[in-house]
Amino acid sequence: MSLPEDFSWTDAYLLGYAPMDNTHREFVAIVSALLAADDASVAGYLEAFAKHAEAHFSQEHEWMEKTEFPAMQCHIDEHNAVMKSVREVQEIVAGGDAAQGRSLAKALADWFPGHADYMDSALAAWMSKKTHGGKPVVLRRNLGLRDSV
């Protein structure tokens, strides 16, 4: 399996709802640390990720319930599937297979951009509309785009 060379924060992940963007920065940092962890550190980073994900997903769930977000159930189902995988991999890592923790981190690094682009961007727009009365404005820098002139 090839691991991403660099799973780090980029402004491409900004969604324009600060509480969500801040949590996503933490998500990226923890997954990145798990990807780079040596065998002795995998279980600790995996536990840190599990705690982060529980709080992260619970916060989004609360926002969705409070504001009656239309796509709530499919969003929650996706979070539940991630947590199920995390718990399963924690058991495997506890049994001595640290490589599976890094495999999960690779899967999370692959999953996150699509989840953020589709599910979380819709929630961020919804939350901005509900809390600020309009759509979010996102200024992204350093995306590696070339001048077209």
SSE diagram, text form:
Layout: H1 18-36, H2 39-67, H3 72-94, H4 99-132
Helix pairs in contact: 1-2, 1-4, 2-3, 2-4, 3-4
| Topology order in helix (H) and strand (E) letters | HHHH
Counted by DSSP, the helix tally is 4
Strand share of the residues?
Answer: under 5%
For this structure, the quaternary state is: single chain
Number of strands: 0
Distance between the termini: 40 Å
Q: Residue share in helices?
A: over 70%
> Main β-sheet: number of strands, strand sense, barrel status?
none
Task: Throw out a few tags for this protein.
mainly alpha; Four Helix Bundle (Hemerythrin (Met), subunit A); globular
If you had to describe this structure to a student in words, what would you say it looks like?
- It contains four helices and no strands.
- It has one domain: Hemerythrin-like (Four Helix Bundle (Hemerythrin (Met), subunit A), Up-down Bundle).
- With 149 residues, it is mainly α.
- Helix 2 (39-67) runs parallel beside helix 4.
- The protein is globular, with a radius of gyration of 16 Å.
- It has helices spanning 18-36, 39-67, 72-94, 99-132.
- It is 70% helix and 0% strand.
